[in-house]
Amino acid sequence: MVAGPVDQVRTLYRTLLFFAAVSVLILVAGLVEFAYFEPPGQHTGLKATIVGVYQYDPDHKTTVGTDRNSFPRTVQFAAVVDWSTLPHNVVVDARWYDGFGNVVGSVGPGTPDQLAGQTLVPVKVPSGFSHDLPGDYIFVVERYEGGLPVEVIGRRVVLVER
Amino acid sequence: MSALTAARRANPRARRPARYAVAITIAVVLSLVLVASSILNYVYLDTVAGRTSLYGLLAVALIAMGTFIGVRAAARDPALRRRDFIRAAVLLGLAALLWLLLIDVFIFTGAAGPQVAAVCALACLPTTAFGLWVIRRIDRNEKEPWRLVLVAAAWGAVVATSLVIWAESLWQDIAIRTLVPGPGFDVSTAFSAGILEELAKGAAVVLLFLVMRSEFDDVVDGIVYGAAVGLGFNFMESVAYMTNLYAIFAPDHVGGYAAGFQWYARQVLGLFFGHATYTAFVGAGVGIARQLPTTRNKLIAIAAGFIVAIAAHFSWDAWINLFPIVQNNFLILEIHLRTLIMTGPFTAAVVALLLLGLHIESQALEDQFRKEAARGSGAIMPEEVPILVSPWRRFQQRLRVLGRGGLRAYIRLARLQSAQVDLAMERWHRERQEVDTPLEAEQELRSQVISLRKQLAA
After folding, report:
1. Mutate which of B246, B261, B308 to disrupt the A interface (most A C-beta within 10 Å)?
2. Could you say which DSSP state residue B326 is in?
3. Per residue in A75-85, is it b (16+ CB within 10 Å) or e — as a string?
4. Which pLDDT score is estimated for A43?
5. Residue B246 CB partners (closer than 8 Å, separation 6+)
6. What is the reported pTM?
7. Which of A124, A134, B156, B202 is the right S-S partner for B282, CB 3.0 to 4.6 Å?
8. Nearest-angstrom CA–CA distance, B215 and A13
9. Is B169 touching A (CB cutoff 8 A)?
């Protein structure tokens, strides 16, 4: 009995299917990573009170003016958080992220009592630069579980203008 | 097969193949998405609307002319009607491309102003052109027509970027408002880029496959078209990133450095190790599907190509932070190693498919050259077979003819060789039962080869 000629296009097809199988594993790994950092069932309904985002005077470590959603890049700014509205037994932190996803200011993590003296969370100018980089800045108050931030319980988006 | 020798089908079919209906459906869906995108542009980007209405006058004129010719075609006799409809479609297509290009220019390059945008675009043109030249050259047996390669690149640069911008913005907006910033957020963004961008780019490859079947022979052609779409997308994305980063860092006097780094990362290092690789997988899937016998297998192959493209794109975006670049003496080395480690395996995989595809194609063509020579039709002579199977020997033969008969003889021989390859390709597809054209089409190609041979001899 003589075997028929092998269709080499089938070889191509099978090779592609092998690559696709590996790719599915990559995508599944991505989903697992997403689930690890965004674990389901973590919604507690807690709400942190972000009093506002204000112009910041670094010399006197105080805020100036009214709550704003945008700032020129030459102006420093800070968020003000009221930790007293949160339960005493949760672990939380607060962070500023710049447009590139870098952390550019934070307090915590700790319990609300431990953070009571740190109501001001200013954005730090990146080293080597004279002003903040323009873009959307995200301020989040995060609840921790098992050493990882698992839930955002307060959020503000602020634009730093070009 | 090349446009040069694309023979008119001997017996036009009374009905269009079903794939045209699929192509029309895809085109209508994409058009609706683009219309929605334009409306969103108008509503949310008020500064854009005013300027595009001014600079878009040429697009408006093209639409008016295309519509006029299209309407006039309806009243014409059938012979002229087809020609007018094609003209109208070309004008409307140009208008749509021009309009989208205007929107792209304002959205992506508005940050740093037109001068910086123009410099960035000019910097990216030679590298992108080089990339297109290379991927067209690798199709050593039968190069794809420039017009289709450029259409593919234009789709990637203009249409694909327009298709994804609002979907990605919406995804990003929802992610910012719902997810914890950090690795989970990065993974979400990577899924957004991988899925949406590869679908938008891959749509071009699928449309080419459905509409230009005669120019879409196998996996090699698919990889060429896919990579061309990727290079076009990479061009526009490079310009967008360069101008954006220039605008961000210019006040600190490092805007040029930031833009230059982006240029190197995307137009040199990432020219082939990036979008070209990702979308080449879509092309590979479609190209393999072209030669599979059943609809089920075809759909699986196309889906597999998209999955690999999405995974390759996703892995770069999601896990790039696993290889942080530190400002030290090894900075340059780290940047290159990161690209090589993260995208290198995918590029190697697409090259493996390409080499295997070229090997299969070469073997098939050699087989068909011999069969046609043995047939004694006069289209291919037995002594021509060893020359036709080798692109290098074909080129040497053309050079010899150039020396003896000048440029005219060179061009005629090039046409003859091209037609002979087309004939062998048509025979290959017919033998594999992959063509929906009548047998007369093959005979017409054969007659064309014989006619070209007579012209060369004269």
Report:
1. B308
2. P
3. bbbbbbbebee
4. 81
5. B111, B112, B116, B120, B255, B256, B258, B259
6. 0.83
7. B202
8. 20
9. no
